[in-house]
C-alpha cells in the first residue's frame, strides 16, 4: 500500500505539474489573465484528471496488460481521454446548464491538455494502485489549480505595473513563472 | 511559391516564438542539447508523417470526426517513435521519459494537421511539416544551449566536447525549472525588442 499522503503532497507541491514537470503550460499562460476564468479552468481540470486517472488505470490493468498490448497505451489513452471529455461535455450540457456555462468553454481545451495525458502516463509508469492513481490525479489537478490561481493573481497585478515594452504580456509572465517555480523549489527538500 | 511553405515555419511563423505552440516539451527536455536534438527528431518524424498521411486522406476524412482521426494517426506515429527510441537509443529514451508519448498532445502537431495538412496537397504538407519541425528544433536547441552552457559550464553533444569546461561554479539553477522559464522569457523579450526597433525605423 503506497503512502497516499506522500503521493498527494508530492503531486501538489514537490513535483507540481506546471512548475516542475512543465505539463499543461498552454492553459497556464492562456487562461491565467483573470482569476475567475482560472478558477473555472482549475475545477474542470481537477474533475477530468481524477476521472481520467481512474478510467485509464482500469483500461491499462484489465485490457492492455492481459492482452499484452502495453505498447498501445499512447493510442488508447489519448482516445479514451478525448472520448471522455466529449461525453462529459454532452452530459453536463444536458443535465446541468449552469455548470456547463461555467465550465463548458474550458472542456474542449482539456482534450489537448498535456497534463491529463501526463497524469495517466505517470500513474502507469509509477505503478500506482487504483486508489493511488485517483489520489495522484486529484492532487495533480489541485496542484495545477494552485499554480494557475497564483499566476492569475500575479498577472492581474502586472496589468497595472509599468513593465518595459519588450517584456510586456508573455515575457513578464514567464519571468513570474520562473519566480514561482523558484519558490516551489523550496518544497523539494521535503521528505515524507 | 512552394519553397515558401518550407521557410515560413523556420523564421516568419516559428512555431515556438511566433505561434507559442509546443511549450511543454520545449521547457521540459531543454536541459541538454542532446535531449533537445532527440526530441526535435521525434517531432520531425511525427509531424512530417502525420502531415503527409492526413493530407493524402483529406478527401475521405469526414469533417465531423476529423479530430479523432487526426489523433489516431498522430498517436500511431508517436508509438513508432517511442518503440524505435526504446530499441535503438535506450539511454535517450530513458532521459526523455514520458515526454516521448506526450508528443501526441504537442499542440504543434495537431495545430499544423488541422490548420494546414487537412486542406493542402501532399507536397505542400510535407514541406510545411519539415519547415515547422526545423523551426521547433531551432527554438529548442537555442534554449537548450543556453541552459546547458550556464548550468554545467560546458557543452557536450553526443560525447563530443563542443565547449570545454570554463568554470568550476556553474549556475545550477538554469538546469532546474526556473532556469527554463527565465531563458524563454529573455529570448522572447529580445525578439520583441528587435521588432519594436524595426517598427520605429
Describe this structure in words.
The complex is a heterodimer of chains A (192) and B (201). Chain A has 192 residues and is an all-alpha fold. Chain A has helices spanning 4-14, 25-30, 35-64, 73-95, 97-103, 107-111, 114-125, 130-158, 170-185. Chain A has one domain (4-187). In chain A, α3 (35-64) packs across α4 (73-95) and α3 runs antiparallel to α8 (130-158). The longest helix of chain A has 30 residues, at 35-64. The radius of gyration of chain A is 17 Å and the shape is globular. Chain B is mainly alpha-helical and 201 residues long. In chain B, 67% of the residues lie in helices and 3% in strands. Chain B contains 8 helices and 2 strands; from the N terminus they run αααααααββα. The two termini of chain B are 29 Å apart. The mean pLDDT of chain B is 86. The chains are: A mainly alpha (192), B mainly alpha (201). At the A-B interface, α2, α4, α7 and α9 of A face α2, α4 and α8 of B.
Salient structural properties:
heterodimer; A: mainly alpha; 9 helices; B: mainly alpha; two-stranded antiparallel ribbon
Number of strands of chain B: 2
Largest sheet of chain B: 2 strands, antiparallel
Q: Number of DSSP helices of chain B?
A: 8
Using the alpha-carbon principal axes, give the shape of chain B: globular
Poorly predicted parts of chain B: none
Write the layout of secondary structure elements.
The complex is a heterodimer of chains A (192) and B (201).
Chain A (H helix, E strand, L loop, with lengths): L3 H11 L10 H6 L4 H30 L8 H23 L1 H7 L3 H5 L2 H12 L4 H29 L11 H16 L7
Helix pairs in contact in A: 1-8, 3-4, 3-7, 3-8, 4-5, 4-7, 7-8, 8-9
Chain B lengths: L1 H9 L12 H6 L4 H24 L9 H23 L1 H7 L10 H11 L4 H31 L2 E3 L2 E4 L13 H24 L1
Antiparallel strand pairs in B: 1-2
Helix pairs in contact in B: 1-7, 3-4, 3-6, 3-7, 4-5, 4-6, 6-7
Amino acid at each position: 500500500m503506497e503512502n497516499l499522503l506522500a503521493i498527494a503532497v508530492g503531486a501538489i507541491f514537490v513535483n507540481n505539474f506546471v512548475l516542475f514537470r512543465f505539463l499543461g503550460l498552454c492553459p497556464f499562460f492562456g487562461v491565467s489573465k483573470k482569476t475567475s476564468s482560472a478558477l473555472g479552468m482549475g475545477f474542470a481540470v481537477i474533475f477530468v484528471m481524477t476521472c481520467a486517472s481512474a478510467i485509464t488505470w482500469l483500461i491499462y490493468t484489465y485490457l492492455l496488460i492481459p492482452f499484452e498490448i502495453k505498447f498501445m497505451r499512447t493510442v488508447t489513452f489519448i482516445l479514451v481521454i478525448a472520448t471522455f471529455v466529449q461525453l462529459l461535455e454532452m452530459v453536463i450540457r444536458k443535465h446541468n446548464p449552469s455548470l456547463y456555462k461555467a465550465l463548458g468553454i474550458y472542456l474542449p481545451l482539456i482534450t489537448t491538455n498535456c497534463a491529463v495525458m501526463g497524469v495517466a502516463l505517470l500513474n502507469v509508469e509509477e505503478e500506482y494502485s487504483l486508489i493511488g492513481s485517483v489520489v495522484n490525479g486529484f492532487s495533480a489537478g489541485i496542484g495545477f489549480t494552485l499554480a494557475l490561481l497564483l499566476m492569475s493573481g500575479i498577472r492581474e497585478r502586472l496589468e497595472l505595473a509599468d513593465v518595459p515594452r519588450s517584456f510586456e504580456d508573455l515575457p513578464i509572465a514567464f519571468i513570474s513563472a520562473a519566480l514561482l517555480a523558484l519558490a516551489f523549489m523550496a518544497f523539494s527538500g521535503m521528505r515524507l | 511559391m512552394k519553397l515558401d511553405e518550407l521557410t515560413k515555419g523556420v523564421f516568419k511563423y516559428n512555431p515556438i516564438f511566433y505561434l507559442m505552440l509546443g511549450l511543454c516539451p520545449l521547457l521540459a527536455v531543454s536541459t541538454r542539447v542532446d535531449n533537445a536534438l532527440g526530441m526535435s527528431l521525434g517531432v520531425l518524424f511525427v509531424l512530417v508523417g502525420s502531415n503527409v498521411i492526413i493530407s493524402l486522406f483529406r478527401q475521405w476524412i469526414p469533417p465531423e470526426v476529423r479530430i479523432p482521426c487526426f489523433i489516431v494517426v498522430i498517436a500511431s506515429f508517436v508509438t513508432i517513435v517511442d518503440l524505435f527510441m526504446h530499441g535503438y537509443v535506450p539511454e535517450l529514451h530513458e532521459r526523455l521519459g514520458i515526454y516521448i508519448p506526450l508528443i501526441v498532445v504537442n499542440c504543434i502537431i495537431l495545430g499544423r494537421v488541422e490548420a494546414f495538412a487537412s486542406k493542402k496537397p501532399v507536397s505542400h504538407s510535407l514541406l510545411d511539416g519539415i519547415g515547422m519541425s526545423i523551426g521547433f528544433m531551432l527554438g529548442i536547441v537555442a534554449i537548450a544551449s543556453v541552459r546547458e552552457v550556464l548550468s554545467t559550464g560546458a557543452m557536450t553533444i553526443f560525447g563530443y566536447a563542443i565547449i570545454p569546461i570554463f568554470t568550476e561554479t556553474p549556475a545550477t539553477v538554469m538546469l532546474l525549472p526556473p532556469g527554463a522559464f527565465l531563458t524563454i522569457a529573455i529570448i522572447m523579450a529580445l525578439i520583441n525588442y528587435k521588432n519594436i526597433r524595426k517598427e520605429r525605423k
